Amino acid sequence: MSDRNPEDLLEGGCEAAAGLAVYGAEAVDATAPASARAALLAEDVPARLVGKDATLWGPEAQDEAAIRLGWVDTFRRSRELLPQLAELKAELADLDHVVLAGMGGSSLAPEVITRTLGKSLTVLDTTDPGQVRAAIADRLDRTVVVVSSKSGSTVETDSHRRAYWQAFLDAGLSEAEAGRRFVIVTDPGSPLAETAAEMGAFVVLADPDVGGRYSALTAFGLVPSALAGVEVVELLDQAEELLGALGGPQDNPGLALGAALGAAATTGRDKVALVPDGTGIDGLGDWAEQLIAESTGKNGIGILPVVVEDPGSPGATGPDVLTVTYGGGLAAGAVPGNGIRPDLAVNGPLGAQFLTWEYATAIAGVVLGIDPFNQPNVTESKENTNRLLGSGLPIESPTFVDAGVEGYWFPGEPQQAAPLPGDLAGALRLLLDGLGDDGYLAVMAYLDRFADAKTAQVRPGLAAASGRPVTFGWGPRFLHSTGQYHKGGPQLGSYLQITGDVAEDLPVPGKAYSFAQLQAAQAAGDREALAQRGRPVLRLHLTDRAAGIPHLLDAVRGLRS
Fold it and tell me: pTM to 2 decimals?
């Protein structure tokens, strides 16, 4: 429990098991006209979910659910990987720089695991040539590359594999020596498994009955984490200790969280602010963002996760926002000392956190009446990208140019009559003014998330200026996450896309395009998909990133004055 004063703890009760506690859920559920929790218990949903009942989400979802419920107890099958992981660590002991090439569900969990447990892992989930080039140049002689793709056909991951393969050969390694530098994680029978055999790479097969965003405790989460030095068995132990509570009606934190998420979403609070409380879990919000957005954002409904930097950052609260803090320390359920009073608090060990949020998201899917395991709109931007790589990018003329920032306006249906002002500040104000009382703004930055990291400061600035939920995603990373919600969820979003000139391009070996061309096609393909839905899109192109980012931040700060 907490060492804080009783008045600092959340109201609404606590449900706890296996060291994980959810605070405040009873009070959230009580705000609904009818209890979501009572309805779930009346249908015996907790026990049926633990029993992998594929009928829980209706007949249209049944076939998909039947092959996607392995996450419920995948930690048991994952124990079979432990001897193989020990052998890999011993075989690759001379390679102490671990690079993970993966997107979405293949990268977000290991990033949380290693950041939380203090281990070094380079995550490569970008097509920005500068970021890719910098990763390859870093300790190449000591690098092992984990290439993770469930389907085996992810274009970003294949491009990374090709670039590293060429870099190893250029460094003087033989093909056999280069092959030893790769560990391939994929599903049985995927084309990547065949490619791995041709390369002479190590192969670890993942659990095929687990979808990507639910794969934290499968090979996708465990292989890169173990190679980086994490004792992954502890994560499996934490999840297994929790499972016994998830089938019951009481002391079930997963049920409490899922019922609260569902109850809030069906009564007007369909945005969820994910806020770290500073008690020992680093980056869980980014992982939960994909899980919630891609699982619920479809059929015109859904829950929008908003990752907030800290309790004092703008955008953590609002009339249509459910505020949820997370952490792992002793201050479980306590109100963070530097800002907000959350609606919910989720505290406990990381392995149990993964399983709790997965279970809760599936429960919320029952409440919302959607299939939490499909992603019907994800392929749209991919198809647009492939088409544009073949046909060439559209010719676009900027609406304005302001100190090296070019503005392109795709007004969307609600704002067809609104011309774009001729300056950056005016364009941003027009975009924010169009949000209304129920809209949200998604910032999508197709830049280098390390070299251009300051760009992320626009999120809290725009949230403060607008008073509305504002999300931030690095492209194309977010396409494997919130991209599904943008297209399949409630059509209430406005979009700020940020692109930038590339100082030095990088070819994709064996392909007719470069990383810069791929990145540009992904950005163009996504804004095309959004504009076709009648949603407003403002594209800001930085002709000089070093000068353009500070100018953009100054303009955002000016909106608040």
Answer: 0.96
